[in-house]
Task: structure prediction
Amino acid sequence: MRFVLASASERRQELLRRILPEYEITVSSFDESLVPYKGDESAYVIELSRSKSHSVRDLYMNSEDVLIIGSDTIVSLDGTIYGKPIDREAASLMIRSMSGKWHSVYSGISVTSADGSTDSSFSVRTDVKFMKMTDAEMEEYLDTLDWVGKAGGYGIQGESSKYIEEIRGDYYNVMGLPLNALYKNLKELDILG
Result:
């Protein structure tokens, strides 16, 4: 069985090695703006991850024994979805809005075989609380550029970690790949022993 990760995320690549030591990377070119958010975070990330895995599956249609893993992660606060900030100002707005509050991180995972015989998707939610940050702390954090390319403008394993007061759920989900849920899913599908 050949495994393909449909993601350019270095965090996901690093985490997936804990389950699958060998896999290929084929980055999905799917345009996320084609999936409208309809108020259900779980359904939204599942559709995003499914669309990514299916777009990569199309590249392997004539291949046997190929399994594609697609993933997407979003941050949600009071019904507002935070993706990756486009600039410092957007990151600042995200961090300021989450300061002193709980927010939810959702990851969608889709496991799809090239021949279409396997097509499994699920989502995982983790709740995270930032401490109440001072303006100086926010500016110091933004200066690190740790927010670049990260949903919600932060990576739990990075410079923002000292501001995280509490977490409820899967830590690795906040990093972008819920390891235990993916591992169990692959076992349920008889892909892993």
Summary: The radius of gyration is 17 Å. Residues 67 and 113 are 4 Å apart (CA to CA). The mean pLDDT is 94.
